Amino acid sequence: MTKTRRTTSHSLGLVQLRWAAKMAHAALRTENLICRPSQCVDCKTFACYTGPMLTLALATMLGHFQQDSDVYPFPGTESPSKRFVVRHLAGDANELFDQKTKRSVGKLVGFSGFEGENHGGMSAAYSAKETWVAVIQMGKWEPQNLAILNTSTGRQLGMLKRIQKDAAAYLNRVIRVKDSAKYVFDVPGAKWSGSQVSFAIAGEIPKAEEAPAVNLSITYTVTASKSGIALGKAKVALMKNGQVWRWKSAN
Q1: Same domain as 234, residue 129
Q2: Among 104, 149, 178, 195, which is 20 to 30 Å from 59 by CA?
Q3: 130 with 226, same domain?
């Protein structure tokens, strides 16, 4: 069986870049802008690309190809209908993208970096009608960012500080955990039930084996408002280890 060689868009871009560089080099050499024919080396080595005009042209083209390769979807962030997905953009920005309309729903404010950077990754949990989505950018001990978005308006509400505040208040008021101010709170799970979103919270003091780990669930009612997104009062409950869930979308 004859094997067919597959050519990716990245490799095609590199071929085009080399061809354009070679043509530009030939033109500049003709005008004596870089080197005389007797001094010129093979264009494939890029050894004689010292002319300022050529340098600018190559930088512009290379930046274009690099930007194209920097746009990609984050695994685990696509909605059940496959309409929405979180994408990484050139320049370390991230957005919620509508794959049906081919338009951005909105950039994720405060979310930056690529897949796996600083122990990070992206996860998303969508409501049943995909009106709402909770998005998390993970970190080593606690999330780097967490937000709720309205997929119709693109409005976004940061949730990380609110969750940390409500979890710490529960430790102080109900459980009365010692050194509660030292706790960090990871968010290993999120799920929707109608307009209510529930987060699974894992609290611990990093590298402190004597401090007890605490698992909580925090539930908020989410509604659209004139100013953006409104949250109801937090409902916090203690959970056992086996009750903790992962990030998942409603069916």
Answers
A1: yes
A2: 104
A3: yes
What amino acid is encoded at 114 in this protein? F
State the CB neighbour count (10 A cutoff) for residue 38.
5
Count how many domains the chain has: 2
- Residue-range definition of the domain harbouring residue 44: 9-69
In this structure, is residue 172 part of a structural domain?
yes
The answer to whether 174 and 182 are in contact (CB under 8 A) is no
Separation between Cα atoms, residue 203 and residue 185, nearest integer Å: 4
Residue 250 lies in a domain: no
Does residue 47 form part of some domain? yes
Does residue 36 form part of some domain? yes
Residue by residue, pLDDT tens for the chain (251 residues) are 444 433 344 434 444 444 455 445 444 444 444 444 434 444 444 444 444 445 444 444 444 444 445 788 999 899 999 999 999 988 778 999 999 999 999 999 988 766 555 556 889 999 999 999 999 998 877 899 999 999 999 999 999 999 999 999 998 888 777 777 788 999 999 999 999 999 999 998 888 777 888 999 999 999 999 889 999 999 999 998 778 889 999 87
Q: Mark whether 32 and 126 lie in a shared domain.
A: no
In angstroms, the CA 218 to CA 245 distance is: 12
Residues 6+ apart with CB under 8 A from 22: 43
What is the C-alpha end-to-end distance of the chain, expressed in Å? 44
